[in-house]
Amino acid sequence: MDRHTTPPFMLRLFYRTGAFHRPDEFLTFPLPPHITIHTWPDCNLKELSYIIAAAKPALLPDPAIGTRLAFRLIFPDTRNNSAGHTTARYAVKDLGSVVVGDGGRGLDPDDPDAEKKPENDGDKTLADARFVVGDYISCAILPPLPDGSVAPASSARAGRGSGAGESRAMIGRTPSGSLGGREWENGSARPVRQRNGGRGGYDGFSNRSSIPTGEWRRGERLPDPPPAGRGRGQRRA
């Protein structure tokens, strides 16, 4: 893919330390803490981890070696709509994880696991995940365990984390280091234009509905400006 000729799309990248956000947390206002980036379908998990590290360095321990960043795709559950329910709901799909500094030998030369092949989830792309414009990506940041070992991806429970990335509704304030009304285009910050033409945090999405109005097929480009929510065809495999 030629990124110089292919226009990027907007993606909301949510983050929390120690846990994933619950699906119902994406139905409330304000949305959980996140950064807004512009990227392409060939963006992979490793690239997303770089973007988080650049945009929110305080989220990672110092040193960051051994920190696991686990990712999930968040998308509207249309099975719920077809069943006659009026309340929108979200479904989740685990995408994999990236370990900061993974791929090299450990400090112990006698470690029997030192030569094991490192995880390769970092090469998975948004296209591989069947991402559709309007979906969310959620990231659970898992610091190393007290003994220095890498936390397993299974430890990224859904629910309240350890503080960083909690929504204002849960802790009463915005996490330190908030970017406010700034977008990130693969690591480069730029202001967000408001609906009224000024500067601020408006990103073109309303928070009242999860499914856009009108008739359109999955994968089609949404109207400009984007509608209030997202649409979806069949459930992701």
Any descriptors?
single chain; 237 residues; mainly beta; Ubiquitin-like (UB roll); eight-stranded mixed beta sheet; two-stranded parallel ribbon; 8% helix; 24% strand
Write a brief caption for the model.
The chain is mainly beta. Helix content is 8%, strand content 24%.
Regions with little confidence, pLDDT below 50 for 5+ residues: 104-109, 167-218, 225-231
CATH topology: Ubiquitin-like (UB roll)
Task: Output the CATH homologous superfamily.
Answer: ASAP complex, SAP18 subunit
Q: Specify the CATH architecture.
A: Roll
Please report the distance between the alpha carbons of the first and last residues.
Answer: 24 Å
Q: Give the integer mean of the pLDDT values.
A: 72
What structural class results from the helix and strand content? mainly beta
Give me the side-by-side strand order of the main sheet: 5-4-6-1-3-8-9-10
Q: What integer value in Å does the Rg equal?
A: 18 Å
CATH hierarchy, class: Alpha Beta
Largest sheet: 8 strands, mixed
Count of DSSP H/I helices:
3
Task: Please trace the helix and strand order, writing H or E for each element.
Answer: EEEHEHEEEHEEE
- Overall tally of structural domains: 1
Strand % is 15-25%
Described by the principal axes of the CA atoms, the overall outline is globular
Number of strand segments: 10
Give the % helix. Answer: under 10%
